[in-house]
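[recover] target loaded
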């Protein structure tokens, strides 16, 4: 049986007061502060994608013995394409889906009446700048906060969004533009998790400074306002994206999360401050399935080649035996091979296991449903359900397994001691790639064609949502350091921002009392490179000067004898230009890559370091696309905040090559790439290769400089026009735009940036004389 204890949400929030939970507050009548409201009772439902036990086990009461599509036990069908799992709270269902084709396709966060399937509200999101293909959208799930009822989700393009139960927006973070989140053709996104005042996600990112190298990183945000609380880098260089959703629990009397990563590790991280505790490498590729927690031990599964054998796939029980790094450590303990308690020759690439009554249930890539003894790892029985399986995961509810497969089949299996008995098989329209959700006597399953609801009236149990018991969070020792909020901040020159800090003990437990305001804090740079002079407002706010150039670094934050740290980026206010002539070039460790003397690009640029370097060419200093890392052959670098709009981007670009091949180079303007495509000999605008892509013929030559200018004009109805022109730099500028692309659902804002694509890392591209210019109303240039 599962060893983790559970508790109602009311008790959970009491145990998490130090993490920001409020168990004694009533929901305010005024809508001005919906994110700070607390529910007076625990909600009823299925608030996260694998349920309250995080293991695919549901207590929902009686479900139908037999279902007829369009008849008995079939409650409703809602026409919405999806690839994830819905969540439910107090009769309201939330799910991610997508609708439309080509440039009009949008991901949707949808709220429905769980009993009737009636639409309550929906919110749409454009894809932008992603590598997603074949409509692989909504490969993830929302999560509902038990305390407030708010809903959180991450889109395929990496928008982390928060809404109230009634669909009012709370906050949004662009993981790509702010933190360098990478996207992949598979579109796998996963689900956030919530603990205390934190909403937590993970992603492969390449950011700035010491977070420049690509890693699978974990990000914790304040669930109320989106403030970044911490970033954790517990693993090694990634081999793949990861679909694994973090699992919450306790270890060594510390609140922790466990998650599979894109670097093939299972990791354990302290949720108070993000410090890594342990990791165990188990796979040559990413660990995409979600884990199951059994007290201090973990059940994990993967579908790649093992590190210690040529066999593909492994189901493993990990016993860390009390090993772990101390609180505040920067590196985790690497568990030895003996931490593997048992191994079963069962694999799953991204399907997650379910747990019930001492048995683990797994769907393998071959379409087999397999049972495994949780104590010994011995195989129980195998039942063939289909020809293949990809992402979809089984659910245990009402004494039966509810098993969707990629082919759209939905099997109901009764597990017996010696066999699995197939009771019924439904053929749904579309493909199943998520897991079923169960709440209030109903079961829901989403396919690429529709969302289905099965059940019967009045058969459900009104069970309050249960969460994990986490350790008491009040400080038990003296103050040891400051916990600074935000952990990372981006500021535009001339703006102001408040920073606060909490006093915490050695295990990051907060001391009593309110946070220290900015006026009680002092700031000083950590490491080389002096920041711009930061003025202080009357309330202590940080205020970089209006003429500050790009800067990024870490600051030591001090209050008396206590210190903490934060990361700060200062971004120039438009108009600004960069010709790189002020950069000092040096060989060796000071450059991003070995080779000719060079320098890193501005540290404040997201995804700049390792992808680009400044070098001298023909007597001028220019930006050069690096070619020593195949992962970065296609690179996007962001130079401003994601809220920017109404600007023009200019740059000079050039590609190496020959008549047989060239690379591509260009700029990013308001979430559109405008680039000269070398092999195609075109000027192209794109935002996602399958969604938004339009080009016109443009003959250009290798080793010749060209100038690109681009802008986006958005109309009141939300439509827009991307305008771009390109010409040889040494020739007069043409009067007309070379390209004009009309987009019915235009991107209204986005960071300016650079784009370079050195196909198979063969031919370098070069960029110089970058300019970001504000536009006057009606300006046509």
């Amino acid at each position: 049986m599962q060893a983790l204890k559970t508790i109602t949400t009311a008790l959970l929030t009491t145990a998490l007061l130090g993490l920001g939970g409020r168990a004694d507050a009533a929901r305010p009548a005024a809508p001005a502060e919906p994110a700070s409201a607390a529910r007076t009772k625990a909600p009823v439902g299925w608030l996260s994608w694998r349920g309250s036990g995080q293991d695919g086990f549901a207590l929902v009461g009686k479900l139908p013995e037999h279902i007829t599509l369009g008849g008995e036990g079939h409650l409703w069908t809602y026409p919405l394409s999806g690839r994830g799992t819905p969540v439910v709270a107090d009769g309201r269902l939330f799910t991610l889906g997508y609708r439309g084709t080509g440039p009009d396709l949008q991901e949707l966060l949808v709220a429905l009446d769980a009993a009737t399937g009636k639409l309550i509200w929906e919110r749409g999101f454009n894809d932008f700048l992603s590598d997603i293909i074949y409509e692989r959208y909504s490969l993830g799930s929302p999560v509902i906060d038990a305390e407030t009822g708010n809903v959180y989700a991450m889109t395929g393009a990496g928008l982390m969004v928060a809404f109230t139960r009634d669909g009012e927006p709370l906050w949004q973070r662009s993981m790509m533009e702010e933190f360098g989140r990478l996207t992949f053709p598979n579109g796998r996104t996963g689900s956030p998790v919530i603990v205390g005042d934190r909403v937590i996600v993970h992603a492969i990112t390449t950011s700035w400074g010491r977070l420049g190298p690509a890693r699978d990183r974990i990000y914790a945000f304040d669930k109320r306002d989106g403030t970044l609380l911490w970033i954790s880098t517990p693993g090694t260089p990634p081999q793949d994206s990861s679909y694994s959703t973090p699992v919450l629990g306790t270890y060594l009397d510390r609140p922790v999360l466990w998650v599979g990563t894109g670097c093939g590790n299972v990791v354990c991280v302290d949720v108070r401050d993000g410090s890594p505790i342990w990791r165990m490498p188990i796979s040559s590729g990413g660990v995409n399935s979600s884990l199951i927690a059994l007290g201090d031990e973990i059940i994990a599964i993967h579908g790649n080649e093992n590190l210690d054998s040529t066999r593909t796939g492994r189901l493993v029980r990990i016993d860390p035996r009390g090993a772990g790094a101390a609180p505040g450590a920067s590196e985790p303990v690497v568990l030895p091979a003996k931490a593997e308690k048992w191994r079963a020759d069962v694999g799953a690439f991204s399907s997650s296991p379910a747990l019930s009554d001492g048995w683990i249930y797994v769907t393998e890539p071959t379409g087999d449903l397999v049972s495994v003894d949780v104590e010994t790892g011995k195989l129980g029985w195998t039942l063939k359900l289909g020809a293949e399986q990809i992402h979809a995961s089984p659910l245990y509810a009402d004494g039966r397994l509810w098993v969707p497969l990629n082919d759209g089949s939905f099997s109901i299996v009764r597990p017996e001691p010696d066999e699995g008995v197939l009771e019924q098989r439904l053929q749904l329209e579309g493909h199943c790639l998520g897991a079923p959700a169960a709440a209030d006597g109903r079961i829901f399953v989403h396919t690429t064609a529709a969302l289905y609801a099965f059940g019967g009236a009045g058969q459900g149990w009104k069970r309050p949502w249960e969460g994990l018991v986490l350790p008491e969070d009040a400080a038990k020792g003296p103050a040891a350091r400051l916990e600074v909020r935000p952990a990372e901040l981006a500021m535009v020159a001339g703006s102001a921002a408040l920073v606060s800090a909490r006093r915490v003990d050695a295990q990051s437990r907060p001391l009593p009392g309110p946070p220290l305001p900015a006026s009680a804090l002092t700031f000083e740079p950590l490491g080389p490179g002096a920041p711009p002079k930061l003025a202080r407002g009357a309330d202590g706010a940080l205020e970089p000067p209006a003429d500050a150039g790009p800067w990024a670094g870490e600051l030591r934050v001090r209050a008396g004898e206590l210190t903490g740290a934060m990361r700060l980026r200062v971004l120039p206010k438009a108009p600004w230009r960069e010709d790189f002539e002020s950069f000092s070039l040096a060989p060796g460790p000071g450059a991003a890559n070995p080779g000719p003397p060079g320098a890193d690009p501005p540290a404040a640029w997201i995804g700049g370091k390792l992808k680009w370097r400044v070098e001298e060419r023909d007597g001028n200093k220019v930006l050069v696309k690096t070619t020593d890392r195949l992962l970065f052959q296609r690179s996007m670098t962001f130079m401003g905040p994601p809220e920017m709009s109404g600007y023009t981007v200019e740059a000079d670009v050039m590609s190496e090559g020959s008549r047989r091949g060239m690379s591509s180079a260009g700029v990013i303007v308001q979430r559109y790439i405008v680039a000269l495509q070398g092999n195609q000999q075109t000027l192209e605008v794109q935002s996602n290769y399958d969604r938004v892509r339009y080009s016109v013929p443009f003959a250009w030559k290798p080793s010749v400089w060209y100038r690109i200018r681009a802008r986006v004009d958005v109309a009141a109805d939300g439509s827009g026009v991307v305008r771009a022109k390109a010409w040889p730099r040494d020739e007069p500028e043409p009067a007309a735009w070379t390209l004009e692309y009309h987009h019915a659902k235009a991107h209204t804002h986005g960071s300016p940036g650079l784009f370079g694509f050195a196909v198979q890392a063969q031919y370098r591209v070069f960029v110089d004389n970058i300019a970001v210019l504000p536009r006057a109303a009606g300006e046509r240039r």
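[recover] notes: Confidence is low (pLDDT under 50) at residues 1-39.
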